[in-house]
Amino acid sequence: MQFTAKDIAFMLNGTVEGDPLAAVSQLAKIEEAQQGSLSFLANPKYEQYLYTTDASIVIINKSQQLTGPVKASLIRVENAYNAFTLLLEQYNTLKLNKKGIEQPSFIHTSAQIGQDAYIGAFAYISQNVKLGANCKVYPNCYIADNVTLGDNVTLFPGVTVYFDCVIGNNVIIHSGSVIGSDGFGFAPKPDGTYNKIPQIGNVIIEDDVEIGSNTTVDRATMGSTIIHKGTKLDNLVQIAHNVEIGENTVIAAQTGIAGSTKLEANVMLGGQVGIVGHISIAKGTQVQAQSGVSRPIKQEGLKWGGSPALLYGDNMRSNVVVSRLPELEKRVLELEKIITELKNK
């Protein structure tokens, strides 16, 4: 699909400098763009590429001053970054705009499929499933009994949703993720083996949540594991049974949260953070990557780091001390030698 500079300027409420009929069919970074590409310039560090790029059209700020000839047609807007982001969103919407039911796929006769849904080949929709309007279930997804999906939900290829789980509106779940697998519940027996504790709860994912690839959200032992609205989970995140994640929380890759822990709203966890079970994390808490949280955090809006996690400033000071340990050891050994010599005298 091609768009002209005139078309794009109309969408962005911008003005064209150059050929209004210059056409583009793809998006590209300004330093890599070729003929037929649309790019943008927002960061002054990349201004040099404005004069060398092969892009057919470049979006720039109205305030941008030119210091040399430009081959591309220009579209001037108030904020080039925001304008390009808007185009990315529209481009992505067009690219993912699928409808209809592909074959072979299985849809149980009791399932309810909303208007304009897309069901990809080899998807399996089990009994009593409810899909809202504009849902997209890509190939090789499995949706088990009694699952409910709201409107505008997207399950990319290979997503598995276990029985009884509830997913809200505008949720995106990326490939390979598993929603509602059993929580890690085992009771030790006197002989050293374990009894499996049945996990009979479910997972509730509220509106506007996005979950990255190969992330797992375990079902509750009883009740629900809950991901509240607006939360964003990265790839390879583990959410254990009966965990509750507060609104608009952001969790980076390879983080693990143990069972029955509660995160309040607007928490930010860096990559590879580990949190023990049965504690609470206060609203607005930020935890540095590779930190281990082993006790409740009760004060809101503070930054933490290290393992076990300390207040960020305390952790940084501790790191400085640790880096000086070889020097301090040497000084202690020297002092011990002096003390020994004094004793001998």
From TrEMBL:
Belongs to the transferase hexapeptide repeat family. LpxD subfamily. SUPFAM superfamilies: Trimeric LpxA-like enzymes (SSF51161). One of its GO terms (molecular function) is N-acyltransferase activity. It is an enzyme of class 2 (transferase). Pathway: Bacterial outer membrane biogenesis; LPS lipid A biosynthesis. It holds the Pfam family LpxD. Residues 24-89 form the UDP-3-O-[3-hydroxymyristoyl] glucosamine N-acyltransferase non-repeat region domain. It comes from Mucilaginibacter psychrotolerans. One of its GO terms (cellular component) is membrane. Its EC number is 2.3.1.191. This is UDP-3-O-acylglucosamine N-acyltransferase. It comes from the Bacteria. It catalyses: a UDP-3-O-[(3R)-3-hydroxyacyl]-alpha-D-glucosamine + a (3R)-hydroxyacyl-[ACP] = a UDP-2-N,3-O-bis[(3R)-3-hydroxyacyl]-alpha-D-glucosamine + holo-[ACP] + H(+). NCBIfam families: lipid_A_lpxD (TIGR01853), PRK00892.1 (NF002060). InterPro entries: GMPPB_C (IPR056729), Hexapep (IPR001451), LpxD (IPR007691), Trimer_LpxA-like_sf (IPR011004), UDP_GlcNAc_AcTrfase_non-rep (IPR020573). GO terms for biological process: lipid A biosynthetic process. Residues 102-182 form the Mannose-1-phosphate guanyltransferase C-terminal domain. CDD domains: LbH_LpxD. The active site is at H241 (proton acceptor). Gene3D superfamilies: Hexapeptide repeat proteins, MurE/MurF, N-terminal domain. Homotrimer. Keywords: Acyltransferase, Lipid A biosynthesis, Lipid biosynthesis, Lipid metabolism, Repeat, Transferase. Catalyzes the N-acylation of UDP-3-O-acylglucosamine using 3-hydroxyacyl-ACP as the acyl donor. Is involved in the biosynthesis of lipid A, a phosphorylated glycolipid that anchors the lipopolysaccharide to the outer membrane of the cell.
